[in-house]
Amino acid sequence: MADLIFYTNPQSRGQTVRWMLEEIGQPYDTQILGYGTSMKAEPYLSINPMGKVPAIQHRGKVVTEVAAICLYLADAFPEAGLAPDPRDRADYYRWVFFTSGPVEAAFTTKSMGWEVPSERQAMAGFGSYDTAIDTLEKGLTGRQFIAGDRFTAADLFVGAMVNFMLTFKLLEPRPVFTDYAARMTDRDAHRRAQEIDERAAQEMSS
C-alpha cells in the first residue's frame, strides 16, 4: 500500500484533488466510495466523520477539505514546485481561502435560490454574491496566474472552482473567468485526472 491514500467519488469535488495528485506525480492508492453507502459507514467515518469526500491519508495523517488537501500536498511534495517560497505566499493563501470561503458561500447560496437581505450582508462573510464575484474578477484581472509568475496549487484550486462554476452556470462567463479557467486546465495532469475519473465513473455505473 502506498504512503498516500485518496478517498473519493469520481463525481465529486475529489476531481480537484485527483488533479493535484496527478500534478505532484507521486504514487497513491485510491478508494472509491459511494454516496449514501460506503461514504456514510465505517471504516470511512473513522477517516472523515462528516461522511464526505474527498480526503487523503498520508503516512497515517488524515487531511480533509479540498483547499487544505491541495496546500498540504504542495508542501508535502515540494519537488513538484506547486507552492511559492514561504516569503511570497500572501496572494497564494489569500486567494485560495477567499475562493474556498466567500466565493463558495456566495455560489452555494445562489444555487439554493437564497439571497442575503442588503441590511444583513454585514452578517454574511461573503457580503453578497456580486461582491464576492466582482472581487474575484479584480483579483484575476491583468494576471497570468493568481499568485505570482507561475502555476501553483492556488491556480489549481481557484482554476478548478472557476471552471466548475462556469460549467454549472453558477458564474457569468466573463472573459477574465473563461480565459483563466481555460489556461489553468490546459495541463497534462488535468487531462490525466479527467480520464481517470471518467473511467471510474463508468465502472461505478456498469
Automatic annotation (TrEMBL):
<feature type="domain" description="GST N-terminal">
    <location>
        <begin position="1"/>
        <end position="81"/>
    </location>
</feature>
<dbReference type="InterPro" id="IPR040079">
    <property type="entry name" value="Glutathione_S-Trfase"/>
</dbReference>
<dbReference type="InterPro" id="IPR010987">
    <property type="entry name" value="Glutathione-S-Trfase_C-like"/>
</dbReference>
<dbReference type="InterPro" id="IPR036282">
    <property type="entry name" value="Glutathione-S-Trfase_C_sf"/>
</dbReference>
<feature type="domain" description="GST C-terminal">
    <location>
        <begin position="85"/>
        <end position="204"/>
    </location>
</feature>
<keyword id="KW-0808">Transferase</keyword>
<dbReference type="InterPro" id="IPR004045">
    <property type="entry name" value="Glutathione_S-Trfase_N"/>
</dbReference>
<dbReference type="Pfam" id="PF13410">
    <property type="entry name" value="GST_C_2"/>
</dbReference>
<dbReference type="Pfam" id="PF13409">
    <property type="entry name" value="GST_N_2"/>
</dbReference>
<protein>
    <submittedName>
        <fullName>Glutathione S-transferase</fullName>
        <ecNumber>2.5.1.18</ecNumber>
    </submittedName>
</protein>
<dbReference type="InterPro" id="IPR036249">
    <property type="entry name" value="Thioredoxin-like_sf"/>
</dbReference>
<dbReference type="GO" id="GO:0004364">
    <property type="term" value="F:glutathione transferase activity"/>
</dbReference>
